[in-house]
Amino acid sequence: MGDIRTLDGGVAMAAQIAGNRRFVPIVLVLAGAVLMALGTVGLRVLLAVLAPLGVEPGTHDALIGSLMLWLVGGGVLCIAIGLILAMAHSGTSRAAWLIGSGVTLFCLGCGPLLVVVLAAWLGLTADRNPNPVFLGMLFAATFAPAVVLVICGVVARFGQSGGRNERRATESH
Predict the structure, then answer these.
(1) Domain boundaries, the chain
(2) Could you say which of 24, 75, 85, 156 would form a disulfide bridge with 32 (CB–CB 3.0 to 4.6 Å)?
(3) The dihedral formed by the CA atoms of 96, 74, 20 and 9, expressed in degrees to the nearest 10
(4) How confident is the model at residue 2, as a pLDDT?
């Protein structure tokens, strides 16, 4: 009976957090960090969770590898969405939100690939010619939306300042 009460309390707390929208970005960022940690440094935990399902290293390496990619990709997506929502709820102008979202998406999508390429170029990795396929796909999926968001933000910013200048000019006459 105690387990059911705990479950009901957890569901009630989750509903309360979901009802309060200012916690949603924080929860998304934390969930993304947990997903990324589980897919990278928490590999032993992932293997312990998969062991009762019959998934073992050596026989199911492709499945484990694809799960790791999905966990890291989902984690990056959760973090990006959480940060974008945090900027949207910050009360800043629409232009600043669009530019900030574009820059955040650019950094999260392009940053890991640039770090790997830079580390290989500097000789910090064992492989002087790495092939980071997943990071390349992440770059390809985030670069264009990031550029579009920044361009829209710049256009919105100049549209806002142009509108203010026109209003000031009509008020002074």
Answers:
(1) 1-91, 92-173
(2) 75
(3) -170
(4) 46
